[in-house]
Amino acid sequence: PLSFPPLRSEEAVSVLRGRMKGIQGHCNSCYMDAALFSLFSCTSVLDSMLFTPFPLRDRNVQSILRDEIVNPLRKTGFVMARSVMHLREQLTEKGQFSSFTNAEKDPEEFLNLIMQQILGIEPLLRLQSGGQKEQDCYCYQIFMDKQEDLVVPDVQQLVEHSFLSSDLKLVEIPSCFIIQMPRFGKEYKMFSKIIPSLELDITDLLLDSPRECCVCGDIATLECS
Questions:
Q1: CA distance linking residue 39 with residue 37, whole number of Å
Q2: For the chain: N or C, fewer Cβ within 10 A?
Q3: What are phi and psi of 126, to 5 degrees?
Q4: What are phi and psi of 14, to 5 degrees?
Q5: DSSP state for residue 117 in the 8-state scheme
Q6: Where is the Peptidase C19 ubiquitin carboxyl-terminal hydrolase domain (predicted)?
Q7: What residues are paired with 140 via a beta bridge?
């Protein structure tokens, strides 16, 4: 199959900026449009979803994703709404619910359906909470109480606050760290805007990772939240 590399640097700006760029929204598709744009426009980390041979019954979903959405997005910077609707119709057939074509859904529900149930990809994240049993997942949704000192936070701050408040640790360094921001939904948005962190430091989020003592500089033996 044809493939186009993800957009980088100046090329990304020239191809993706301007009118009639990005993924065209239609009929509550914003959750899927934003997820697909984030996963594929400028990174190849999940390109295995586009090319790994899957069972014959699921290749239609894969070909729509690759040929009608990702390739046009990377080539011209624009995807028509009918292409996403084509994918939504296939997901409705594969899923347990019939509302993928018209209702606003949670991005995590979409990712779990396409990654786990349809394409059978191994979970991307392994988390542990408070020494309990490990749990596998495909993305991490930030949950946190309103912080008065965080007016315009960046992603680094939000991830650290969320992991700390939930007593969570990453069991291992993830190959891909998909994070859902606390800014979705029509009724309430916790932050008016969030600054993207171009790099994410997960040193303090890793379970049993050697870290520096903030007092003496040696290897730390105790951790205080």
A1: 6
A2: C
A3: -125, 120
A4: -70, -35
A5: I
A6: 22-202
A7: 179
- What is the average per-residue pLDDT within 144-166? 89
Residue with the two structure tokens 């065209």 = 24
Give me the torsion for CA of 201, 205, 211, 215, rounded to 10°. 90
d(CA 62, CA 53): 9
Query: Partners of 179 in the beta sheet?
Result: 140
CA count, 13 A, side-chain hemisphere, 143: 7
d(CA 27, CA 155): 29
What φ, ψ does residue 148 adopt, rounded to 5°? -65, -30
Q: What domains are defined for the chain? A: 9-118 (3.90.70.10), 125-220 (no CATH)
What is the rounded average pLDDT for all residues in the chain?
Answer: 89
- Position 4 confidence tier, pLDDT thresholds 50, 70, 90: very high
Q: Model pTM?
A: 0.86
Could you say which DSSP state residue 55 is in?
Answer: -
Spatial separation of the C-alpha atoms in residues 45 and 65, rounded to whole Å: 15
Amino acid 56: pLDDT:
64
Instruction: Please give the structure tokens belonging to residue 112.
Output: 């779990």
Residue type for 109, please?
E
Strand 135-137 to 125-129 pairing: antiparallel
